[in-house]
Amino acid sequence: MDEIKKALSEADPFASWWPFILAGVVFVIGTVRTYMGGQPCPNGNTIPDRVIVVTGATGGIGREVCRELARRKAGCLVLACRSTEQGDALRELLRREAPDCTCEVQILDLRSFDSVRRFVRQVQTHHPTVDALVNCAGVIFQPGGHTVDGYEAHLQCNFLSHFLLTQLFRPQLNRSPHGGRVVNVSAHGYTAAKIVDREDPLNLRQLTTSGRDAFAHSKLAIVLGSRALARKLVAEGHQTTVNCCSPGLVRGTGHLRHSPIMKALFAKVLTFPWMWLFMKSPAQGAHTIVRLVTDPALASCNGDFFNDCERVEVSELAKDDELAERLYQAALSAVGLCETRENKHIKGKKE
Ligand SMILES: NC(=O)c1ccc[n+]([C@@H]2O[C@H](COP(=O)([O-])OP(=O)(O)OC[C@H]3O[C@@H](n4cnc5c(N)ncnc54)[C@H](OP(=O)(O)O)[C@@H]3O)[C@@H](O)[C@H]2O)c1
């Protein structure tokens, strides 16, 4: 021990550059990771008694959203998922972490409008009021082409089914004493999307070439559809708001599970260090969504796009209100709904 003490007291830190180089590398890595992790949710308020529906609840980001909302004492979380086993496992985790929060598992498959309608009926039976709807589920490079309803899979899973879900929950959201909130999870990738024919904003007549293009278009549709809905909610005098966000680039989720490149082991090994350095953790990816659900300062924020917990400008295409309205009408028709003449109620076409 005396020898170690002596060696330390006699050590000359300036004899070598290595300690400084090492400290510099650790500092740079730490700074890059902190910066890339994005801004944390600035508010920490609780949301007791709120009923919140979360789609994609068992996914990487959705799960973290649920954990944080449960920690913030949400009254009831409705976990919308495809697998009962995964839903039950998440409910069990939440029960342990936040015993005061009630969690319900409900089955929802966004590849089918029938499933969406069944899901809404189930939730409505128990909850006359819904305070927030988080449309977090999403797919990319989805195999299988078209859905049972005949739509391109990305378009239906990411946009159309969430659009239908939101329309069907509008009465419940409008009843929220806190002002209902819809949070639609989009992606930075929406900026790469193209709508070639303004008469066909859902690209139904386009031959989609790649999963990436279809994903980008579905995420642009989310932004345009939210913008149009926000304008209607304001015009109709409702307290409900609808906003979009990008979670950023998030590692460790199932998002790229169908990516042809990321299926290869060598790609996983090669990209791991970069993902670790430059991408957010799922918990960091959840921050913007949590802020949009919980922050009282955003109660009147409507039709906006958020990134890293801050409101950001959208692309020129996503600001096109005329296109947004066209897309909204096309989406209503695609999901089998129509607006009444007063623009006040949404009805099924067959009603
Ligand atoms: N990770 C990123 O870097 C990133 C970047 C930009 C945007 N986003 C968006 O963030 C959201 C969450 O993504 P994530 O990274 O957490 O991915 P994830 O782990 O794959 O989670 C996606 C969730 O969506 C659910 N889902 C997929 N298809 C469904 C369907 N047909 N019906 C119902 N649920 C379905 C999945 O359920 P199953 O487990 O049953 O498949 C899963 O719970 C998505 O909207 C995604 O587009 C992610």
From TrEMBL:
Q: Where, by residue number, does the polypeptide cross the bilayer?
A: 17-36
Tagged with keyword Hydrolase: no
Instruction: Give any GO molecular function from the UniProt entry.
Output: oxidoreductase activity
Output the InterPro entries linked to this UniProt entry: NAD(P)-bd_dom_sf, SDR_fam
Keywords associated with the record: Membrane, Oxidoreductase, Transmembrane, Transmembrane helix
Would the keyword Nucleotide-binding turn up in this protein's UniProt record? Answer: no
One matching Pfam family, short form?
Answer: adh_short
Kindly list any coiled-coil regions of this protein: none
This protein's name: Uncharacterized protein
Organism of derivation: Anopheles culicifacies
